[in-house]
């Protein structure tokens, strides 16, 4: 995993500097405004050719204003007074602490009094009022209050086009100044709001739709996970969930900025690095950055609640969001309905009236209001490309491999040659003609090869030749991995008095969870950082590699797989390889290198587990234990990976890959 950095409070956030900074930034916005007007007057100059002049200009100005607010980390005070909401305002006391368990327990962040607003009015008898919506607002965990000024336009859309019942919108605690409340405060408050409906007001769970947009969508996902993982609390499940433009990987915005700016939708969305970084660093706080209740991506779970998930096709959150949808869909029994809003930026339900996306946001609201009953649709046959002015393209659930569910791609007014939509749809539905292969060369290092390697694999150096042939092929991504151990690594027999390499084993305990452990074989000292033995073979054509990943750098754990260590609760080391593959829209992973029965095996198994079609090329690997290689291959194929030869169709197909 790339380095996670928690930046401190920026200098420009302090009062006097903040004032000067804002004046300067607003001045530069005004100075650039004529240039934007000129640029967006021409269709070619717009972020997307389908956008109007107004949409392009409004999106640009709005992005700049959000950027200024985020850089100064503008304080967002919250009040528990009714204010303009008057009798629509409700103050909620926290429930007994016993209901806030596990991830909701915190010594520094306890459940607190919050408030919320009813729309259009609180029902006279909520328990008998029929369908109720609990909507959790977005704002990167640092902005927003769920009140009328923020959410009024959104809920007007829900009432007008979605035909929904009364809505309750909680004002959860924010992680921003002046009273920062990091994780799990917002999740505690989301649970308090749901308990208020089902326990205080007696509304049946079967009458409640839980929904949320952006960061609110993140909280909805976390709340659904909590209701499943703590059934002993007796909290009823809601009828369904609407998860709108959810932020599924906040931790990525604490990675190097290049990770954010390289997002293919970065220039077509008003969300920028500054707002997301501000929200991620303050909300995560002291929690593990990859906490499953903070980062849904990579942590799928089973829920009985039907889910509607929406994204804008042009928003930065859609890239990770689509991967999360795939992960959740692979969990047997989950029910997902997915709607991709064409050429739309983030959360048009919230800001569409500002940015000029009223028509588009109205269609999202219509989807929101439909019952989320899983559908089993037949494929609607169309031409191989999108048809000009096609109203709706419905892709079959079979092709999407969603079970059960529906994905609709709106394409109104879009020409058949629009490659942007075509590419997005193809990558999303994983069509058979979608083929984006990656090559992973595992640990082709001196210490694993004769004649001088300290852990030499028989004939290990021979695999360099077929691997170089593979490097000539048009893989979308070519990655090499390296064992990169510290001298005192736990896997070295020399660091365990009386233990012998190859023969003895050691029990490795999760340093963050003493209840989780595994037994691992001990090895000779090998691939020590900075030594000749840790270098890649000189025969390997490293000039054709796109990326080199170092693994096994944590002295406390063994890490055969280049993805991550074997621990799960929590994981200790993650190289970021899975995210790298997803960022490049990889569909198929080809694994080669050393040694076949250890690091290569674990790489192939984890690639398959991550959902990639995975192939281990047998001519390009060698095992440590040749006698047990046949049994090892059975285990690899049992994980879902496939063992192939250089002459098999799976490899020959690479010759014609584009």
From TrEMBL:
EC numbers: 3.5.1.19
Annotated InterPro entries: AB_hydrolase_3 (IPR013094), AB_hydrolase_fold (IPR029058), Isochorismatase-like_dom (IPR000868), Isochorismatase-like_sf (IPR036380), Isochorismatase_Nicotinamidase (IPR052347), Lipase_GDXG_put_SER_AS (IPR033140)
Active site residues per record: 214
Keywords attached to this entry: Hydrolase, Metal-binding, Pyridine nucleotide biosynthesis
UniProt entry tagged with the keyword Hydrolase: yes
Pathway this chain belongs to: Cofactor biosynthesis; nicotinate biosynthesis; nicotinate from nicotinamide: step 1/1
Domain called Alpha/beta hydrolase fold-3: residue spans: 133-348
Pfam families xrefs: Abhydrolase_3, Isochorismatase
Enzyme class: hydrolase
Residue stretches making up the Isochorismatase-like domain: 438-647
Keyword Metal-binding: yes
Biological process (GO), any one: pyridine nucleotide biosynthetic process
GO MF term set: metal ion binding; nicotinamidase activity
Family named by the database record: Belongs to the isochorismatase family.
Record's protein name: nicotinamidase
């Amino acid at each position: 995993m790339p380095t996670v950095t928690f930046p401190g409070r920026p200098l420009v956030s302090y009062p006097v500097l903040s004032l000067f900074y804002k004046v300067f930034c607003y001045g530069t916005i005004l100075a650039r405004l004529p240039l934007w007007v000129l640029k967006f007057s021409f269709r070619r100059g717009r972020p997307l050719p389908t956008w109007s002049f107004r949409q392009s200009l409004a999106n640009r100005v709005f992005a700049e204003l959000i950027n200024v607010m985020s850089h100064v980390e503008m304080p967002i005070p919250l009040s528990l007074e009714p204010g303009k909401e008057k009798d629509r305002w409700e103050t909620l006391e926290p429930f007994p602490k016993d209901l806030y368990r596990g991830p909701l327990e915190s010594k520094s962040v306890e459940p607190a009094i919050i408030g919320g607003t009813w729309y259009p009015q609180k029902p006279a008898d909520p328990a008998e009022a029929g369908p109720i919506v609990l909507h959790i607002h977005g704002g990167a965990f640092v902005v927003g209050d769920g009140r009328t000024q923020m959410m009024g336009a959104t809920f007007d859309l829900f009432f007008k086009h979605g035909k929904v019942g009364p809505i309750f919108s909680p004002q959860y605690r924010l992680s921003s100044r002046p009273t920062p409340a990091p994780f799990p405060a917002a999740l505690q408050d989301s649970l308090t709001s749901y308990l208020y409906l089902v326990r205080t007001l007696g509304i049946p769970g079967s009458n409640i739709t839980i929904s949320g947009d952006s960061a609110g969508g993140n909280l909805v996902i976390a709340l659904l996970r909590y209701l499943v993982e703590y059934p002993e609390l007796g909290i009823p499940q809601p009828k369904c969930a609407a998860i709108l433009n959810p932020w599924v990987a906040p931790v990525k915005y604490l990675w190097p900025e290049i990770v954010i700016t390289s997002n293919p939708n970065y220039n077509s969305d008003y969300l920028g690095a500054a707002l997301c970084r501000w929200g991620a660093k303050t909300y995560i706080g002291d929690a593990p950055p990859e906490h499953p209740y903070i980062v849904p991506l990579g942590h799928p779970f089973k829920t009985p609640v039907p889910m509607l998930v929406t994204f804008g096709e042009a928003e930065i959150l859609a890239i990770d969001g689509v991967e999360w949808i795939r992960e959740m869909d692979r969990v047997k029994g989950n029910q997902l309905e997915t709607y991709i809003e064409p050429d739309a930026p983030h959360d048009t339900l919230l800001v569409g009236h500002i940015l000029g996306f009223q028509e588009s946001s109205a269609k999202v609201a219509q989807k929101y209001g439909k019952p989320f009953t899983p559908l089993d649709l037949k494929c609607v046959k169309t031409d191989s490309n999108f048809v000009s002015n096609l109203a709706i393209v419905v892709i079959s659930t079979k092709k999407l491999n969603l079970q059960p569910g529906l994905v609709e791609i709106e394409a109104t007014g879009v020409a058949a040659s629009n490659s942007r939509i075509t590419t997005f749809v193809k990558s999303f539905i994983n069509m058979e003609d979608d083929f984006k292969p990656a090559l992973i060369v595992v640990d082709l290092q001196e210490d694993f090869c004769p004649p001088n390697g300290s852990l030499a694999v028989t004939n290990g150096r021979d695999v360099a030749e077929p691997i170089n042939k593979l490097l000539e092929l048009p893989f979308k991504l070519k990655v090499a991995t390296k064992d990169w151990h510290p001298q005192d690594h736990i896997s070295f027999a020399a660091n365990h008095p009386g233990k012998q390499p190859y023969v003895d084993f050691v029990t490795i305990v999760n340093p963050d969870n003493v209840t989780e452990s595994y037994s691992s074989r001990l090895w000779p000292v090998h691939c020590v950082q900075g030594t000749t033995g840790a270098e890649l073979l000189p025969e390997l054509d490293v000039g054709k590699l796109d990326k080199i990943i170092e693994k096994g750098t944590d002295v406390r754990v063994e890490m055969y797989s280049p993805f991550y260590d074997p621990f799960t609760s929590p994981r200790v080391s993650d190289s970021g390889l899975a995210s790298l593959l997803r960022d490049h829209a990889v569909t198929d992973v080809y694994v080669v290198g050393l040694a076949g029965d250890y690091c290569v095996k674990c790489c192939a198994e984890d690639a398959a587990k991550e959902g990639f079609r995975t192939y281990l090329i047998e001519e390009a690997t060698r095992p440590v234990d040749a006698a047990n290689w046949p049994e090892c291959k059975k285990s690899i194929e049992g994980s879902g990976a496939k063992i192939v030869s250089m002459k098999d169709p799976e490899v020959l197909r690479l010759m014609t890959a584009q």
